[in-house]
Design goal:
Shape: elongated
Order of helices and strands: EHHHEEEHEEH
Distance between the termini: 23 Å
Strand content: 25-35%
Structural class: alpha+beta
Bound molecules: zinc ion
Number of helices: 5
Radius of gyration: 17 Å
Helix content: 25-40%
Length: 131
């Protein structure tokens, strides 16, 4: 998306946690703990990914994008699909998106990345281009 910025990737943390799980130091019960709310969001607002669940390997993970920001008011803390994110990016100045991967079979879930969207990014970019 055009206004995407401040991208943080959580792949290292995910890999470290999975290493703990594979070695048995962390139980799958502890990491496969998606709440009913998250599972429901995955069903209705999630997008399929190409990544197979690293724990049960039975299905491909679903990505759920959660939005947070003061400007969003009551919509802050809700799950949004890609079309809604694109629309919101043109409506609001700034909000943060947290992408969580979820396995709807075993309930594995982990933060994948976070980033900021919103029209403030466009302005900043325009200013840079004009300099
Ligand atoms: Zn799974």
């Amino acid at each position: 998306m055009r206004t995407q910025r401040q991208v943080v990737d959580y792949a290292l943390r995910r890999r470290a946690l999975l290493a703990e799980v594979y070695s048995g130091r962390v139980g799958t019960m502890e990491v496969c703990d998606a709440s009913p709310y998250l599972l429901r969001a995955a069903k209705f607002h999630g997008e399929p990914s190409e990544v197979t669940c690293p724990v049960c390997r039975k299905e491909q993970l679903t990505l759920v994008s959660w939005v947070y920001g003061d400007e969003l008011k009551h919509a802050s803390g809700s799950a949004r699909n890609p079309e809604e994110l694109a629309r919101m990016a043109g409506l609001f100045e700034e909000f943060t998106v947290y992408v969580v991967e979820v396995c709807r079979t075993c309930s594995w879930n982990h933060l994948v990345r976070s980033y900021v969207l919103g029209t403030r990014g466009l302005r900043a970019r325009r200013r840079t281009a004009a300099e």
